[in-house]
Amino acid sequence: MRKFIICAMSAILLGGCAARDKTPVPKEVPQIESAIPADMDLTFMSNTVLMSEVTNMRVHPEDYQDKVVRLAGTFGVQQDVSNKSVIYNCDITDGTGCCPSGSSIQLFFEEEPENLPTLGENIIVQGVVNYDKGTYYMNMQLLHAEIWTYD
Predict the structure, then answer these.
(1) How many domains, in total, are found in the chain?
(2) Looking at the domain assignment, is residue 38 inside a domain?
């Protein structure tokens, strides 16, 4: 009986290890043509690795300042209550793909695109990394942002 219980527990534990990472970023993100090459292309990373890299970007901003970065996420919009302006974001979900992780990267365009994505639409963004000391925490920004949508 004891051997049966050990075998059953082993099967349950090993079955959990075989689960696949369900990530909202598809395996086949489209190739993007841009006039400026990216220093870092994060579009083909799994969501777990992407979250790790974005965390590194927040913890060690000096290593990323003024670098051109490309990444995938979803389109988000915020209202800045202090000056009533609209802030566009690239939102990145957590590793399970179910919940916003609090990682929003503010997007600043040279000129606002004519056709902005809809809220929650899959986007690829590229821009120059900048940091702005906000009221409570440091805001990560992409200046001169370019934006593309995909399914």
Answers:
(1) 1
(2) yes
Task: Report if pTM > 0.85.
Answer: no
Domain range holding 132? Answer: 21-149
* pLDDT given for residue 118 in this prediction: 93
B/e letters for 77-108, b = 16+ CB within 10 Å, e = fewer, are eeeeeeeeeeebbbbbbbbeeeeeeebbbbbb
- Is the separation of the CB atoms in 88 and 116 below 8 Å? yes
At residue 129, φ and ψ (nearest 5 deg) are -70, 135
Give the residue among 114, 119, 110 at the shortest CA–CA distance from 145: 110
Question: CA of 56: how far to CAs of 21, 51, 107, 115, in Å?
Answer: 21, 9, 19, 32
Token reading at 71: 């990444």
